[in-house]
Amino acid sequence: MRAAVHTAPNEPLRLENVEHADPADDEVLVEVTSCGACHSDLHVNKGELPFPTPAVLGHEVAGVVAGTGRAVSGLSPGDRVVTSFIMPCGRCAQCAAGNEEICLEFFAHNRAKGQLYDGRSRLSFPDGTPVWMYSMGGLAERVVTPATSVYRVPEGVELSDVAAVGCSTMTAYGALRHAADIRVGDTVAVIAAGGVGSALIQLARVFGASEIIAVDIGTEKLDAAVRLGATATVNSAEVPDPAEAIREHTRGRGVDVAFEALGSTTTFEIARDSVVEGGQVVVVGIAPPGSTGELNLATIARRKLRVQGSYGAKPRRDMPVLLDLVARGLLRPQDTVSRHYSLDEVNEAFGALDRGEIRGRAVIDVARHSG
């Protein structure tokens, strides 16, 4: 099969012939229809997140089941599915405690080594050389992934519309539901209106937030944020103090929750300074290792601020909820998709993402050829 292979930091992805193993007993083989282009993949490709090479990136997959392992139930060949980027092992201490978004095996094997939970990749070059997997390695024509990451797509929903549900939307849902526990009437700021930020805006509206303030540096992204549900916007490139501008939109009060959705010192500081006394700062963006943000301990105590991280939602509990919202038309992930590329154009997609040109999400239509 064809796959876009990451060979070294800051090198273009190379389209190569790669072989996949048959699914193990608890795994599923999926023919990939679409795969979202995520900033996490970009961080890996630029060497900002350490990961072994050669590897296939891509973890926002929609497609059709092509085969299942002997122990898999509830999924059959021909089922239309979407995957979650977190592939919970279901056995470790965190999974047992209900915290499968921080599954110990996922981080120890996949994020550290590009493997599944038996210590092997499911991808290789024809000569047998292993090719490592970032999640399931979705920038390929087929993927093998644990069944815990595979979910049926409701009838009437286009596969290319929901490719990013298993990452950007699920990440946003985890931040809103589990980290912040947003309630009807809460006020929120979303700092950085990219893929995850766009999903945060959509879902904050679904959750009943009374004010949703989107912050970014691009007029096009901010205009799109309004269409997705933002009640106000702040162009942080055009105001001297973005946090103060957020406060002005809340009559000087500040927001109940500020979501940092990029992973940078600057956006963290905006989020930190924009919340009300007793408010929450939720860090969602994945920052390069070594990135720091300052906290004044006296201010945290006096203002009773809460700062917490959120890596994602709980796939087995939350993916069915998200797909039900999509089926009922309450959540429209397709409205965040602004560009489509073929697998041949994968480097164009990530180049545009790196330059900040993508509004919301770009999707790689794997089965489509350029031209």
Q: What topology emerges from the helices and strands here?
A:
Blueprint: E1 2-6, E2 14-17, E3 19-20, E4 27-37, H1 39-45, E5 55-56, E6 61-68, E7 80-83, H2 93-96, H3 104-113, E8 123-124, E9 130-133, E10 142-146, E11 150-152, H4 168-179, E12 187-191, H5 195-207, E13 211-216, H6 219-228, E14 232-235, H7 242-249, E15 255-260, H8 265-273, E16 275-283, H9 297-303, E17 306-309, H10 315-327, E18 337-342, H11 346-354, E19 361-365
Parallel strand pairs: 5-9, 12-13, 12-15, 13-14, 15-16, 16-17, 18-19
Antiparallel strand pairs: 1-2, 1-5, 3-8, 4-6, 4-10, 4-19, 6-7, 7-11, 8-9
Helix pairs in contact: 4-5, 4-10
Quick structural summary:
The chain is α/β, with parallel strands linked by helices. The protein has helices at 39-45, 93-96, 104-113, 168-179, 195-207, 219-228, 242-249, 265-273, 297-303, 315-327, 346-354; strands spanning 2-6, 14-17, 19-20, 27-37, 55-56, 61-68, 80-83, 123-124, 130-133, 142-146, 150-152, 187-191, 211-216, 232-235, 255-260, 275-283, 306-309, 337-342, 361-365. The strands form 3 sheets. Strands 4, 6, 7, 10, 11, 18 and 19 form a 7-stranded mixed β-sheet that branches. A 6-stranded mixed β-sheet has the order 2-1-5-9-8-3, with no helix packed on it.
Can you walk through the features of this model?
The protein is an alpha/beta fold. The protein is 27% helix and 26% strand. The chain folds into two domains: 2-165 and 313-365, Quinone Oxidoreductase, Chain A, domain 1; 181-309, 3-Layer(aba) Sandwich (Rossmann fold). The protein is built from eleven helices and 19 strands. The strands form three sheets. Strands 4, 6, 7, 10, 11, 18 and 19 form a seven-stranded mixed sheet that branches. Helix 4 packs across helix 10. The longest helix has 13 residues, at 195-207. The model has no long low-confidence stretch (mean pLDDT 95).
